[in-house]
Amino acid sequence: MSSYSRALEVAHEHALHWLGSLGDRPVPPQASIEELITALGPDLPQRGCPPEEAVALLAEASDAGLTATASGRFFGFVVGGTHPAAMAADWLVSAWDQNTGLRTVTPAHSAVEDIASAWLLDLLGLPTESAVGFTTGATMANFTGLAAGREAVLRRAGWDVARHGLAGGPPVRVLVGAERHDTVDVALRYLGLGAPETVAVDDQGRVRPDALEQALAEGGHGPVLVSLQAGNIHSGASDPFEETVAAAHRHGAWVHVDGAFGLWAAASPAYRHLVRGHESADSWATDAHKTLNVPYDSGLCIVRDPAALQAAMGVQGAYLLRDEVCQPLDKVPELSRRGRAVPVWAVLRCLGRDGVAELVERLCHHASTFAEALRAIPGVTVLNDVVFTQVCATFGSDERTDEVVRRLLADGTTWMTGSTWHGQRVLRISVSNWSTTEDDVELSVDAVRRVAREVGGAGARA
């Protein structure tokens, strides 16, 4: 116990130091990988050291190489911060060190997972009979939901993919919006389904129902998967689910929704209309470490038909202690996995229904504040309808926009990334951290305003 105590005390001290520094430290890292390797020591030592010394070296040497993604001024990607309840619960997950794949082996985690699953279905307005799998992230959540869909549509076509594989079976068509996230394509490659067919979208990246209907009608009567989206990474917009899901189901398709961050709109009465009709789909993927702000890793895959999910993911083994209930290992790709439901339960228990809604609404409010402030800066155009948590702006030309992004990172006050949307370079702002304050937004806007002025002045002098 003394070894545990000393190591944990050092980790606790450094963790508090790190968290306390987030308010004023530069957001980008301040050291290169080469510098960090030197500080950590590249050579494996001949003799070891006490646990607390290893932990102290790790913390002290790594500090300058950490990006303050948990800062209220980080808007580079949709990653969120870590809510205190979720972080503390996640420490317990590591201390308990449970493999949570089997209910009879880890009843405490199974109880937590059952409760958290029911709460999630309730908050997101999804069918109560659905199975919930706690995956590593949205990529594996998409993989899992699409795997269940692949199994279901092939089974309906008379083909047992588990027994025969894909070779020789009926081809599965996959239709996606032209602005889907790349993780959908990755998941399809993992599943052996190849590149999908793209469907036209509108100016906010939403699938056009007429284009989907036409694509479905032209494709014949074979097995079909349709992947829709809640939360475009540039605009924040969601597909019109009422029309698109209905069209897909008329053609016998399985409908999957990639809702990595946008699905959480359903948890807010003020923003639920953005995903109206999402509950009619067959599977959904989202990330708890994004809008819900739990630690990595924490993806969620939800499937209306638990049997389809179990058929796609289930594992059999004579040594596994099973009962008649669907096991956690039957709902995710991994047999060995940490207790991912614990931090999800903790933050939901801490926030409650009203707190989750308020969190979503606060993030959206910050995004609207950003958009309004950016529009007031000369030469800046906000390109998207700011309906959720994403803002995309251009600074007049691709070259000027890229220079603003470069100088913002060098400035260190905030982190916002460059991207390309509709053929233009943009500054992309993703608001997803529970701890972001009005002051954080103001400081970040001031940095953008200052850098835009500098870039404009430099261009004028040139």
Write the CATH homologous superfamily of the largest domain: Type I PLP-dependent aspartate aminotransferase-like (Major domain)
Instruction: Please tally the helical runs, counting DSSP H or I stretches of 4 or more residues.
Output: 14
Strand percentage: 5-15%
Unreliable residue stretches: 458-462
Q: Return the string of H and E elements.
A: HHHHHEHHEHEHEHEEEHHEEHEEH
How is the largest sheet built, in terms of strand order?
A: 1-7-6-5-4-2-3
Helix content: 40-55%
Using only CA atoms, what is the Rg? 23 Å
Q: How many structural domains does the protein architecture include? A: 3
CATH class assignment of the largest domain: Alpha Beta
Mean pLDDT: 94
N/C terminus separation:
66 Å
Q: Report the structural category.
A: alpha/beta
Please tell me the CATH architecture of the largest domain by its name. 3-Layer(aba) Sandwich
CATH topology of the largest domain: Aspartate Aminotransferase, domain 2
- Strand tally is 11
Q: What general form does the structure show?
A: globular
Name the assembly state. Answer: single chain
Outline the biggest β-sheet. 7 strands, mixed
SSE topology:
Elements (H helix, E strand, L loop, with lengths): L1 H20 L11 H8 L10 H12 L21 H13 L10 H18 L6 E5 L2 H19 L4 H4 L8 E5 L4 H9 L6 E3 L9 H10 L5 E6 L11 H10 L3 E5 L24 E5 L11 E5 L2 H8 L27 H35 L5 E2 L7 E5 L3 H14 L5 E5 L2 E7 L7 H24 L1
Parallel strand pairs: 2-3, 2-4, 4-5, 5-6
Antiparallel strand pairs: 1-7, 6-7, 8-9, 9-11, 10-11
Helix pairs in contact: 1-3, 4-12, 5-12, 6-8, 6-11, 9-10, 12-14, 13-14
Protein name: Aromatic-L-amino-acid decarboxylase
Family: Belongs to the group II decarboxylase family.
Pfam families: Pyridoxal_deC
